[in-house]
Amino acid sequence: MSLNYHSHQGQDKRQIFQVVVWVVSLIFGTWGLLTPNPLESFISCLIFPILFSLLWKSGEIPVLLFVASFQSLEITTPVLNANLLGITLEEQFGGSELALSFYFSIISIIILVFGMKMGLGKQSNINFSEINLNSFQLTPSRLAILYILLFVFSLSIRSFAFANPSITQVVLPVASLKWWLSGNEAV
């Protein structure tokens, strides 16, 4: 019963935080309607609560949220820059291409985030105690030896790939297997 109470309490905090993020974003978005780029500013403020709502799960490391947020910052930075200068995107860059690019990028990031959400599926809570128990089964010396062997293999296969240009595109992905194998807990 205690575990259920704590998970319910954590869910309440998450919902409160999401409401705060939405309210703050709507306030800044409304203020953004008074800037030289009103629609772009409003959309820029609303993209972040959308990301939080779709990608943030309590008890998990928010890697996908970080990736999507970083991409969103790259998209919204020119809008912020133009607003600080007091000019429109068209005036700053001499044409409507950047504004069009902004809208395509926002649509793309939203589609990407929905794809990430669908890819995550319905996940159950992570059992961190089981992860800790599994990590004790790994020995650092064996992992170090495995990584060194995979590193040497990767270097040699890359050298082979660049020495034979006709098969470079086929062989290079094999060289990146060291990352998958070194992160695989079954090894």
List keywords for this structure.
2 domains, 187 residues, mainly alpha, disordered N terminus, 9 helices
Main sheet? none
Q: How many helices in DSSP terms?
A: 9
Structural class: mainly alpha
Helix-residue proportion:
over 70%
List SSEs in N-to-C order. HHHHHHHHH
Provide mean pLDDT, rounded. Answer: 82
Instruction: Give the domain tally.
Output: 2
The count of strands amounts to 0
The outline comes out as flat
Kindly provide the radius of gyration, computed on alpha-carbon positions and rounded to a whole number of angstroms.
Answer: 23 Å
Q: Which residues sit in consecutive blocks of at least 5 with pLDDT less than 50?
A: 1-6
Tell me the strand percentage band: under 5%
In angstroms, what separates the terminal alpha carbons? 38 Å
Can you characterise this structure?
The protein has helices at 2-32, 38-55, 63-85, 89-93, 97-120, 128-135, 140-163, 168-175, 177-183. 79% of the residues lie in helices and 0% in strands. The model is unreliable at 1-6 (pLDDT under 50). Helix 1 (2-32) packs antiparallel against helix 2 and helix 2 runs parallel beside helix 5 (97-120). The longest helix is centred in the first third of the chain and has 31 residues, at 2-32. With 187 residues, it is mainly α.
Tell me briefly what this model is.
With 187 residues, the chain is an all-alpha fold.
Write the layout of secondary structure elements.
Blueprint: H1 2-32, H2 38-55, H3 63-85, H4 89-93, H5 97-120, H6 128-135, H7 140-163, H8 168-175, H9 177-183
Helix pairs in contact: 1-2, 2-3, 2-5, 3-5, 7-8, 7-9
